[in-house]
Amino acid sequence: MTFSATRTRTAKQRFLSFLASPFPVGYGVAAIIILTLAYSGLDIVPTVRRDVQLLHDVQAVDVHAMRLEDELQFEIQKNRRRFLMILVTAGDRAGAKTADSKGVQEEIRALRAHDATIALTESELGLLGGAQAESQRQFHAIWQRYVTLRDRLITLAQDGGLGKAEGASGADDGLSNLGSGAFLSVEEVVQQAEAASATSSANHIDQISSNIKQELKEFLIITVVRVAVLSLLIWVAWRRFRAERQLTRTTRELRASEDRFHRAYDSSAVGMGSFKLDGTLLSINRMGAKILGYEVSELVGRKVKDFMAPEFREDHIRQIATLPAGPESSYVAERRVIRKDGSPAWLRNSVALLRPEGEEGHYFFISEEITLQKEAHDRLEYLANYDPVTNLPNRRFFEEQLSVALRPRPGRTDCVALLYLEIDSFDFLKGTFGRAIADEILADLGAQLASQRRDGELVARLDDQVFGMLVMAAPYDEATLVRAGELREVFQRAGEAGKHRIPISASIGIAYSADSARESGGTRGTFVGQAPKSTDAETLLKFARAAMLEARSRGGDSIFLADPALQERAAELHRIELALLRGLRQDEFQVVFQPLFEVATGKLVRFEALCRWNSAELGPIPPDRFIPIAEQTGLIPEIGRRVLHEALRQAKIWSETGRRIGVAVNVSPMQFMRPDFTHSITEALALTQFPPGLLELEITEGIFIRDLNLAIARIRELQRLGLSIALDDFGTGYSSLSYLQRMPIDAVKLDRSFVSELTKNAATVSMVRSVLAMANALHLRVITEGVETEEQLAILRTLGCDEAQGYLLGRPESAEMALRRVLDGPLQTQTIGLLA
Ligand code: C2E
Ligand code: CA
Ligand code: CA
Q1: pLDDT tens-digit profile of 61-81?
Q2: Of 52, 75, 543, 628, whose CB neighbour count within 10 A is largest?
Q3: Do the beta carbons of residue 699 and residue 714 sit within 8 Å?
Q4: CA of 476: how far to CAs of 417, 612, 824, in Å?
């Protein structure tokens, strides 16, 4: 995912940022400095150079002129003295006529040569600069005249006419001025020229220096201004440079932070992004795209709602439309989305509306994929509410829905019809075919029921072999009965069509909420067409179950409608349940003991412990009534535990009298199959110190039907403790002789019904005989119960029955009576007279 949209910069921004970079500023400053210097150089340097050159020239002329002047002064003075000296010497020599003319000649020559050297040309004089042309000419003329006169004088002196020469020197031709006048004139001219030149030079120099001053002043001002401007420019440039450096640093930090954000954004384990107010996706990170199975580029620009499962679209739009702005007020929702490949994913979305200043608002979202959690949650919810074998809702869910359906609603005329469907002889089916096949049959049935379900109906599996259906109906209408009939057929068909082709049938009980309400205290007789008082789910289920039991008692595969009488019975059942709970709390249970004798010898061998309950509320209730209810409500293990402890406690007393009298205790299947059952026996034996060999447990076939293997293992476990196991009520259930072979039991207790039939039915006699033969072969003791007559006892003795129990021999009696019976007997054994 990229932020391509937000990253795009305009040309203007790019130009500005280029300007903001430090390089152009540097170039700019350098360019300004160079241009300024170049301009100054071009402008100032030539002017100054010209002026300076002029100054140099003036100085050169000045120095030269002064030097010339000095030299001229000096030379003229020197020549004058020498000329005078020559003249004097020449005069002396003429007088003596021995004048050393050779020495004079040389002197004169030297003088002429020397003069020639100082005979300045006009151009040389012009170099005096300031000297005027007139003065120069004058100087030149005088000089020429001086040279001419001097040469004449020298010639005269050489010819010997000293007087003439002296005369000539005093004559008017100017020779007399030669010594003073001519030189004075030259001096004057030179001085005048010198003065003029000096004045002119000075003026010129003044002029120049004033010009220079002016130029310098201007140059200085310009320079100062330029330096000031330059400094200002440099200062501005420096400020700008610093600001830009700061900006660059900030930009870099910003970019680094943005990079960090992007890295975090893109490597985040949760999806995130933003979308416009109209729902168009602005950005999405990699994870977000990955969850949806797309590339980032494929998503940007598309509408968010397009990815949402249809059922959430409307809610999503409503939620975001009403969302207040600000990151603190986000909304969180679990949404199903559709991936690119069409598969669904669950997301937990958190959406916030952001409105940054000066920008258009947008939504920011964080999406966490929760598909797995959701599935696990759904699975848990499914497990909590559904039965995994049949895929139908379970009892919990059914009861919940039933409660909802039963809620009173004003103006309501319909009621809830509850169909309670139980598979007939399911325990047999399970015992015969095993749990796995039983489950397959149930699964078939579940699928059939689900496919037959109509709108408004609810089908569920309520228990192992129990299904429930909820139908909204008018009380006692024909339709519900028809529907029940259809369901009955569904069961039959499922059995026939199923994989295992095992015929199955169901007993169906129907109860109506309206009638239940009436029966449980509602407005009696006025339920039709009126809002009936609603009943609770539990009661309705009980009534429906009672109706089912009624159908079952009529042979199964039938339908029974809960009538008031039945419902009364069911209500009674409920009352007993409540009383049982109370009975346990108040310890209302007692144990009585019924003796058992060895048929052959008539010896008292043991007592069977039988439970008695005298309810404070309901009076004495026989065990045949309350034991099944205690089993249904799960109270039986506690009742059984109490009976066991009491039986062992009493039997311990008997054994302490020195007689070997055993005790038999009834154990219900539910109690027997509990994982802690063996432990509870060990505990009771240890607690009472009763010898295990004298304890017999009476179990029924029910335990084999529940779980044959476990039952066998449990029996062996108990036998290892030393006690014996008798199979009670043999011949009533599905037990057969072959069954006996598989059971590791010690004794068989023939049901009362066999004994009562003995004298009436010859077939029973032969049946008992074969049971006895079989038992003998398997080394099983055979016990008979319900012996009420001497006749019965006689037959049993003839058949070779081992032990007998019945009203004839002794009714169930109190612990004291039992003890008295024990004590009445001889030590070790006791016989009864009638057997003699
Ligand atoms: P059961 O185990 O078959 O117990 C024998 C029942 O037959 C007892 O009924 C007993 O009083 C009765 N009986 C004994 N001799 C005769 C007779 O000659 N003629 C007739 N008609 N009946 C006779 P009771 O005590 O009412 O118990 C009924 C059933 O309740 C028992 O049948 C047993 O299944 C159950 N039961 C009783 N006590 C307990 C107990 O502590 N635990 C469990 N799990 N079940 C118990
Ligand atoms: Ca029994
Ligand atoms: Ca029995």
Answers
A1: 556 556 655 666 666 666 666
A2: 543
A3: no
A4: 9, 41, 64
Ligand nearest to C-alpha 812: 1
Q: Whose CA is nearest to atom 21 of ligand 1?
A: 786
DSSP conformational letter for 830: -
Q: What is the dihedral of CA 824, 825, 827, 829, to 10 degrees?
A: -160
Q: If you measure from the C-alpha of residue 763 to the centroid of ligand 2, how many angstroms do you get, rounded to a whole number? A: 24
Mean pLDDT of all residues belonging to the chain: 80
User: Which of 135-149, 202-216, 397-411 is predicted most confidently?
Assistant: 397-411
- Which residue bears the tokens 């500005």? 16
CA distance 735 to 745: 13
Mean pLDDT of 499-504: 82
Return the residue matching tokens 């295990």: 692
Encode pLDDT of 526-545 as tens digits: 233 333 344 788 889 988 99
How close is the Cα of 662 to the center of ligand 2, in Å?
A: 14
In 370-479, the DSSP E strands lie at 415-423, 458-463, 466-473
Q: What is the 3-state secondary structure (H, E, C) of 528-593?
A: CCCCCCCCCHHHHHHHHHHHHHHHHHCCCCCEEECCHHHHHHHHHHHHHHHHHHHHHHHCCEEEEE
CA distances from 168 to 104, 153, 165, 833 (A): 19, 7, 5, 227
Ligand located closest to 669 CA: 1
Region of 651 on the Ramachandran plot (φ > 0 left; ψ -120 to 50 alpha; else beta): alpha
Residue 502 is encoded by which pair of tokens?
């095992």
CB within 6 Å of ligand 1 — which residues?
Answer: 594, 610-611, 622-624, 627, 640, 643, 666-668, 698, 728-729, 752, 785-788, 805-807, 812
Q: CA–CA separation, 466 vs 422, rounded Å?
A: 4
Rg of the chain, C-alpha, whole Å = 73
The residue whose two tokens read 């990229």 is: 2
Percent helix, strand and coil across the chain, each rounded to 5?
60, 15, 25
Q: Which are the contacts of 295, defined by CB distance < 8 A and separation ≥ 6?
A: 289
Sequence-separated contacts (24+) of 120-129 with Cβ below 8 Å = 120/68, 120/72, 124/68, 125/193, 127/61, 127/64, 127/65, 127/68, 128/65, 128/68, 128/69, 128/193, 128/194, 128/197, 129/61, 129/62, 129/65, 129/197, 129/200, 129/201
According to DSSP, the residues that pair with 344 across neighbouring strands are 338
pTM to 2 decimals?
Answer: 0.48
**How far apart (Å, rounded) are the C-alpha atoms in residues 653 and 591?**
15
Which ligand sits closest to the CA of 640?
1
Contact 740, 775 (CB under 8 A): yes
Q: How far is the CA of 770 from the centre of ligand 2 (A)?
A: 22
Mapping DSSP to helix (H, G, I), strand (E, B) and coil, where does residue 199 land? helix
Q: How buried is residue 230: exposed, middle or buried, by Cβ count under 10 Å (0-12/13-18/19+)?
A: middle
Query: Tokens in use for 779?
Result: 């080394």
Residue nearest ligand 1's atom 4 by CA: 610
Minimum-distance ligand 1 atom for the alpha carbon of 807: 18
Nearest Cα neighbor of 702 from 795, 624, 628, 777 is: 628
Q: CA 48: distance to chain centroid?
A: 82
pLDDT for res 4? 41
Task: Centre a 10 Å sphere on the Cβ of residue 388 and count the other Cβ atoms it contains.
Answer: 12
The residue written with tokens 């870099």 in the block is: 252
Kindly state the DSSP code that residue 407 receives in the 8-state scheme.
S
Per residue in 158-207, pLDDT (tens digit) is 665 555 555 554 444 444 444 445 445 555 655 665 566 566 666 766 77
Instruction: Decide if pLDDT at 609 tops 90.
Output: yes
The Cβ-side half-sphere exposure at 824, using a 13 Å CA radius, reads 11
| The amino acid at 549 | L
Give per-residue pLDDT as tens, 546-555.
899 888 888 8
